[in-house]
Amino acid sequence: NMLLEIKNLHASVIDDTVENGSKQILKGVNLSIPAGETHVIMGPNGSGKSTLSYVLSGHPSYKVTSGQVWFKGENLLEMSPDDRAVAGLFLAFQSPVELPGVNNANFLRTATNSVRKARGQEELDAVSFLKLARQLAKKLSFPTDMLKRNVNVGFSGGEKKRNEVLQMSLLQPSFAILDETDSGLDIDALRIVAEGVNTLQSSDFSSLIITHHQRLLDYIKPDYIHILARGRIIHTGGADLSLQLEKEGYGRFLDEIDE
Ligand code: ADP
Ligand code: MG
Ligand code: MG
């Protein structure tokens, strides 16, 4: 029961600094994630972690040059970004956008309803949406007045991440990619984001968590940890791998692929 299957994925980014330029970043990524599992990707800066999450979300600046991605048995790379969300994919960006003049509750309701509609679920009117959003916010220990403010405007780093976790809970994804959702969070915010992810855990929900921080893994227990370096997954281990990486760094694993 594979939810996501990435096979020999090669991708390049459109390089704005060079005319017609592109730069090969992913160089043969293989990764399979069954339903219900939590996978973590760690790796040196610049190794292609964010590129992988952008490619999976269908970001227009990234081009797949070869390989395949199957999501619930369907060809993910042929789906529009909207269709990917409807199919159950959710990506929490490294830096969420601020939308001045856009009320957060209205924004979240529009996003929620467009996905619900496309999935054939009942759309929520303003009253029932607020009820649901407040309920979820409470469960996630988020201040409900975040709903009244403009989207991410003047939010602290921690509040932006909380808002993303709230959006994720509203959209009910079956697969979430969190790209350094923990960066810049203090320890309490980190725990709350982790608990938000944990409340979604079920046999129908999988996640791919990209992080530099061992401490996030005090709260989220992964089934597997993968090391992405130089555009490929070079090693896969269990939850203990992060402790080893914290002590020893990536050096040994990089030496192995250099041999
Ligand atoms: P990571 O998330 O692992 O730190 P990224 O996927 O962000 O790595 O970046 C991989 C490589 O691609 C880096 O060398 C980075 O500089 C380069 N890169 C990413 N986006 C662009 C871009 N828009 N233009 C040029 N180079 C880019
Ligand atoms: Mg980085
Ligand atoms: Mg990154």
UniProtKB/TrEMBL annotation:
InterPro entries on file: ABC_transporter-like_ATP-bd, ABC_transporter-like_CS, FeS-cluster_ATPase_SufC, P-loop_NTPase
Family of the protein in this entry: Belongs to the ABC transporter superfamily. Ycf16 family.
Name used for this protein in its record: Fe-S cluster assembly ATPase SufC
Swiss-Prot/TrEMBL keywords: ATP-binding, Nucleotide-binding
NCBIfam families per UniProt: sufC (TIGR01978)
Cross-referenced Gene3D superfamilies: P-loop containing nucleotide triphosphate hydrolases
Ranges of residues in domain ABC transporter: 4-255
GO molecular function, one term: ATP hydrolysis activity
This protein's encoding gene: sufC
Domain of life of the organism encoding this protein: Bacteria
Pfam families per record: ABC_tran (PF00005)
PANTHER family according to UniProt: ABC TRANSPORTER I FAMILY MEMBER 6, CHLOROPLASTIC
SUPFAM superfamilies to which the protein is assigned, alphabetical: P-loop containing nucleoside triphosphate hydrolases
Organism of provenance: Commensalibacter melissae
